[in-house]
Structure formats: C-alpha cells, structure tokens
Amino acid sequence: MSTIAALTKPQILNLYRQYIRTAKDFTSYNFREYFLRKARRDFRLYKDQIKTEEDALAKFNMIREELAILKRQSIISEMYTFDKLVVEPIKTPK
Amino acid sequence: MLRHTTTRLLNNISTRNAINRTTIAAALRVIPTRKSLATSATKSKAKHDEDIDDFKLVVHTSADSKPAASKKTAADASSPGSNALKYAYQERSGFGTRPIYLDVQATTPTDPRVLDQMLKFFTGLYGNPHSNTHSYGWETNNEIEKARENVAKVIGANPKEIIFTSGATESNNMALKGVARFYKKTKNHIITTRTEHKCVLEAARAMKNEGYDITFLNVNEQGLIDLKELEKAIRPETCLVSVMAVNNEIGVMQPIKEIGSICRKHKVFFHTDAAQAYGKIPLDVNEMNIDLMSVSSHKIYGPKGVGAIYVRRRPRVRLEPIISGGGQERGLRSGTLSPPLVCGFGEAARLVREEYEADSEHIKKLSKKLTDGLLSIEQTTLNGSPIHHFPGCVNISFAYVEGESLLMALRDIALSSGSACTSASLEPSYVLHALGKDDALAHSSIRFGIGRFTTEEEIDYVIKAIKERVEFLRELSPLWEMVKEGIDLNSIEWSGH
C-alpha cells in the first residue's frame, strides 16, 4: 500500500505538464490538437472519476506509457514534416 | 560536423530515455523548411545548403499538390472569370497552404500510437509469423495473435473467427464468391442492395456470370432497405444476403440486427460490409446474428493494405478460398501475414475500443455543428435518413451549384463528392440515384467526413468557406437568378438549338 500512497499531487501535475509539452511538439496540427484535447480529457476524468488508489495508479501508469509513445512519435513527426494547414498560423522565426 | 552532434544527441536521448527537448529543438531549429529556404536563399545560401545536406530534412509535401499550382491552371483556363474565381480561393496570409482533411470515409490518418506499434517490426521483429521452429517466428506470431484478439473484441467475436486479408475489398469478394461457390450444388441465389460499395456490386456481377441469380434490393428515399421486401426475396436456394452496415457515401445505417434475425430465421448466411461501421457504431456479431463481416484497417486510423473478415464458426460458415497456398488463416487465406500491418491494425482496433466514447462524442458534436451550419444555407438538403445515420459522414446537396465546380473552388478543403473509387468518373453517384435523387442534385452533392483528428476550428473554417463560395457560385448562375425571381424551373420550356 505504501507504494500506492506515494502517488502525490505534484507527481500527477508533473505527468500532465510533460504530456502537454510533448503533445505540443507534434508538427502535425491534427495530432497536436488531438493529444492536447486528450490530455485535458484524461486528466479531468482522473480528477473526477477515479476513486480508489489502485485505479489511480493503473490510470497513471497507462498515461505514462502513452507519454513514452508520444515522446518517440513527436520526434518522428519532427523528422518528417509537411506544410502547415490553412487553419494554422505560420510562426515567424524569432 | 553538425550531423555528428545531432546523431550523438539522438543517441543520448534514446539510451537515457530522457528527452532533453530544448537541446533537440535547438538543434532542429537550425534546419530551415524548404519554403523558408527559398526566401532566405539569397541571404545565406551557402550555410543553409550545408545544413540541408547534413540532415536531409525536407518538407514531405509534394510540390504539385500545393494549391498555388492548381490555382494557376484554373485561372488560366477561365480567363474572363479569373479575377472573380480568385475570390473563391481562400487566401489568408500568415497561414499554411495544406488543405483541411475532411474525407475520412476514403481513408484516415494513421494514429501515431499505431505507427509506434508498427515500427518494431521494421527494425527488429522481422520473423515470419508462420515459422514455428524458432523464436523469431514465435515472437511475431505472438504479436499477431494479440492483434487478432483486439480485432475480435470490437465486434464480440472469438479471435479464431478472424481471418486477416488485404482489406475490405478482398473480404467482400471472399464472402460473396467464397460462400456462393462452396454451396453451388444446392444454392444459387444472392441478395444484396443497390447502395452497396462497388466491390460488392462487382463481385455480385461476377457471380452472375458464373450462373448465379442476384437480387438487388431497392432502398427508399432515406437510403434504407425494406425488411418485408428482403424477406420476400429470400428463396430456398438463397445462400447469402449481403447488406452494408454504414453506407460510405451517405452514412445511412441499415437495420443490421433486424436483417440478421430474418436471415437466421430462414437459415441464410448474412454478410455485412462493415468497413465504415467497425469501431464507429456498436456491433456485436452474436447479438446481431452476423455470419460474415468485412472490416478494413485504414478506416479506423490503422495502416492501409490490411483488413479482416469475420467468419462464424458456430453454426459454421463454409467458404471456398480465393487464394490457395500454404494454408495460413485456417486455409481460407493463404500467404504470409504482414506482422507490421496486422499489428498496426490490432493496435488501431484496441484504440477504437478504448476511445469509443470520447471519439463518438467528439464526432457527434462536430457533425451537429457542421450540419446545422451548412443546412442554414438556403436550398440545401441532407441526403439519407437523418435518424439512422452515422454522424461522421454528412452528405449535403447544394441545389443550383455544380458539385465539381464547388470542389474546384474548395481547394483548401479536401472533400469528395462521393466514394473515392467513383470520383474519377464524372457520372453522378449511383447511391444518390438509388435514393431517387435526380442527376442535378446528385451532381451537387458533397460528402463531409469527420473523424478523431478533426478539430472544431477546422469545422468553423469549413462552414465559413462553404457559405461564401456557394453564395459566390450561385451569383454566377442564371438558374439561381430565376429561382430568386420565383420562376419555377420545371415550368420552363427550353428551346432547342
């Protein structure tokens, strides 16, 4: 039980921040927006619906695994880039 | 020099598994895109060229798909209207040029999570899944069986009932030809509908040449078949009924459960083409009495080139294989499976199940917004039943606008006037014809596909763009002027030349 109790608020917030940061690294507009939307949804569900600590840990690990996938895939997305979509503002280089 | 630093960077990243974002971003920022290179070429040509050679990092959009190229030809072709037509192309400076993708019925983008599953088969897990003498074969076979289970779970089937194929077209052919040929000694009749996908219709036609009798059921103006008519069409020598679950052009959902129970009652096999339905609407092969089901991977954010057919085991459906060979896939579909494709499909199936609620809710919300927005334009109609309808496929007719010209004016949105297979020909959609729409209306219909990766921002853009351009094209149309003046177009006697 002690390991489960170790899941603290800063840990969850940290995971959330990392997920958002990684999602923003996707160069594809649609993937980026989707994972940002998913992050908000997942963590809201996490806050509202998960009651037991086992569930919390399981969900936490699931999101962490997905984060690892996103980290790999966002790098690939940076290697194979495409033109920006018509709804996407082109950022002027600093 | 630069190449070495980055390779080392990437190596560090993968080994430590801790990504130093700022460093890699800094390293990558040096690399210009093709476009920025063009503008700044004169400034610092030598330096940038060197960078490009080092990284081989280019924009992978091919140049001829850019709207600029097509715009030029369109403007050249119609010189008098060229200024006016220019208006039809949305040009927003400071924004990208790639069109919004709204054609998810044709195919969907591959989910990055699916690609992540697939990559390991290209890098290390290369064993033949049918090699059972060594671990290379065992490990890929394990992965394939996991994928099979994920694919089966979506439709409540047993993994043993899933046969992987090259796609829904092959599955449909296998169902129609395979079942009919196996039972040819006693049965020679197939029932299908007029709104099926081309591959079912063509397979049925091929069976007609082999001496089978085919009944094509009509649909009503809503796109639905009449269950009484179906029951009447069933004869003692009927071997198969094939009705698609969700139509690819109008998104109409047929009453699969009712059809299933009719077929079971008459002891006829029931095949459904669920390429557009799988993972998007609730499907259960046992509850719905489905005996065969065709499924495609690239409609559910999986890789292209793979699909599956569900073949019931109890009561057993027998079919003659189309492809003979080593006896893989229960002998029904020989040939080595492609582990990357099959496992990509498996992961995509797992994801559609996991994300079902979130995806459906998202699609429903965007679909309602789009439908309401477009139907607020006067003289527009939604094709197909609004109730028995999958929200991700919205087919709308814009009266007095020619569909192809509207598509030409919508270079910034990737749309289709119907199925990808038939859009090359200029003939109006046979599906809309079957619904009783006239040629003119069938020609002015456009299909909008909404999927997991469509955003609200895109939908807002699309509604605005369509409103503007429909209005613009109607301004040019003399017919529209007459309609505006209240002249009934049917009352006009057109003089011949």
TrEMBL record, chain A:
InterPro entries xref list: Complex1_LYR_dom, Complex1_LYR_LYRM4, ISC_assembly_LYR
GO biological process: iron-sulfur cluster assembly
Domain Complex 1 LYR protein stretches: 11-59
Residues passing through the membrane, by range: none
GO cellular component term, pick one: L-cysteine desulfurase complex
Pfam family, one: Complex1_LYR
Origin: domain of life: Eukaryota
UniProt similarity note: Belongs to the complex I LYR family.
Protein name: Related to Protein ISD11
From TrEMBL, chain B:
GO cellular component term of the entry, any: mitochondrion
Cofactor entry: pyridoxal 5'-phosphate
EC class (word): transferase
InterPro entries, alphabetized: Aminotrans_V_dom, Aminotrans_V_PyrdxlP_BS, Cys_deSase_IscS, PyrdxlP-dep_Trfase, PyrdxlP-dep_Trfase_major, PyrdxlP-dep_Trfase_small
PROSITE patterns noted in UniProt: AA_TRANSFER_CLASS_5
Similarity comment: family membership: Belongs to the class-V pyridoxal-phosphate-dependent aminotransferase family. NifS/IscS subfamily.
Protein name according to UniProt: Cysteine desulfurase, mitochondrial
Lineage of source species: Eukaryota, Fungi, Dikarya, Ascomycota, Saccharomycotina
